[in-house]
Amino acid sequence: MDYYVVIPAAGQGKRMNAGMNKLFIPLNQIPVIIHTLNVFEQDEHCKGVILAVNENEVNLFIELIRKYHIKNVLKIVNGGKERQNSVYNGLKAVPDEDAIVLIHDGARPFIKQPIIHKLVNSASRNEGAIVAVPMKDTIKAVQNNIVEKTVERSSLWSVQTPQAFRLSVILDAHQKAEDDQFLGTDDSSLVERLGKKVHIVLGDYENIKLTTPEDLIYGEAILAKYKKGR
Ligand code: CTP
Ligand code: MG
């Protein structure tokens, strides 16, 4: 089933501490954002990409898209102050109200096609679908440095992107969040707060978000593994 994807790419990468937007950092000599875009470029079901970027980085992104022959970026829109604002700007540029739209972090270059397709399938049958993996760590609720309780791990999932919805549903959720000045930590939370049922699709632990410098070491290792065909 076909879909569009909105890719927020307008962050500053502060925690990566690279002195630039982390999406320009080369991994195996290719910028992070190109790894991410290539996944969708190579998927025939992807009808187009909408990229949200900082105003002063538009030309840098355009140059990279040309250099690496990415052909399915339909539009480049301005990012906003928060990720949520960047995503909303991107969603407004998706051309078809009935389409399934994915939201995927530019900083997650290791997403795989089979997981994308399972997600699109689930989103087409439900009110929303998100990629997640079971938590590995034990999580405790803590107050003033003292453990309050151990949260039952079997019900805890670590949520990733992509997250997928019918465009009309996610646009409405973003509009309502803006009206209520609600800032969520992901897009799904904006849909959940309207009482809708969002389904989980099992992802994999390699779909990390490149956030802090150690993540680059892991990222290089994942690419080295792919090179060996494992
Ligand atoms: N993002 C965005 N607009 C913002 C903030 C973030 O489009 N105002 C994007 C980032 O470019 C990234 C994704 O959202 O692809 C996930 O955000 P995050 O990992 O937090 O990236 P940064 O905000 O760049 O990093 P940091 O929070 O460390 O500054
Ligand atoms: Mg951020």
TrEMBL record:
Catalytic activity entry: 2-C-methyl-D-erythritol 4-phosphate + CTP + H(+) = 4-CDP-2-C-methyl-D-erythritol + diphosphate
Involved pathway(s): Isoprenoid biosynthesis; isopentenyl diphosphate biosynthesis via DXP pathway; isopentenyl diphosphate from 1-deoxy-D-xylulose 5-phosphate: step 2/6
Keywords: Isoprene biosynthesis, Nucleotidyltransferase, Transferase
SUPFAM superfamilies documented for this protein: Nucleotide-diphospho-sugar transferases
GO molecular function: 2-C-methyl-D-erythritol 4-phosphate cytidylyltransferase activity
Any Pfam family the entry gives: IspD
CDD domains, per database record: CDP-ME_synthetase (cd02516)
EC number, UniProt record: 2.7.7.60
Marked site: Transition state stabilizer: R15, K22
Site (Positions MEP for the nucleophilic attack) location in chain: R153, K209
InterPro entries: IspD (IPR001228), IspD/TarI (IPR034683), IspD/TarI_cytidylyltransf_bact (IPR050088), ISPD_synthase_CS (IPR018294), Nucleotide-diphossugar_trans (IPR029044)
Alphabetical GO biological process terms: isopentenyl diphosphate biosynthetic process, methylerythritol 4-phosphate pathway
Family stated for the protein in its record: Belongs to the IspD/TarI cytidylyltransferase family. IspD subfamily.
Function, in words: Catalyzes the formation of 4-diphosphocytidyl-2-C-methyl-D-erythritol from CTP and 2-C-methyl-D-erythritol 4-phosphate (MEP).
Identification of the protein by name: 2-C-methyl-D-erythritol 4-phosphate cytidylyltransferase
Lineage, uppermost ranks: Bacteria, Bacillati, Bacillota, Bacilli, Bacillales
Gene that this polypeptide is encoded by: ispD
